[in-house]
Amino acid sequence: MPFGEVQELGLRSYGMHES
């Protein structure tokens, strides 16, 4: 699991949670 993938998923979840 590359860090980039994890970061992208985290950012997506954060954005969805924020919205």
What is the first-to-last residue Cα distance?
A: 27 Å
Poorly predicted runs: none
What overall form do the CA principal axes indicate? rod-shaped
What fraction of the residues are assigned to beta strands by DSSP?
Answer: under 5%
User: What's the count of strands?
Assistant: 0
Number of helices: 1
Integer-rounded radius of gyration: 8 Å
Into which percent range does the helicity of residues fall? Answer: over 70%
**Which sheet architecture does the biggest sheet show?**
none
State the order of secondary-structure elements, H for helix, E for strand: H
- Would you tell me the structural class of the helices and strands? mainly alpha
Roughly what is the average pLDDT, rounded to an integer?
Answer: 73
Give your account of this protein's structure:
By secondary structure, the protein is an all-alpha fold. The protein is built from one helix and no strands. The chain has one helix spanning about 5-19. The radius of gyration is 8 Å and the shape is rod-shaped. The mean pLDDT is about 75.
SSE layout and pairing:
Layout: H1 3-18
Summarize the structure.
The protein is mainly α and 19 residues long. The protein is built from one helix and no strands.
Features:
84% helix, rod-shaped
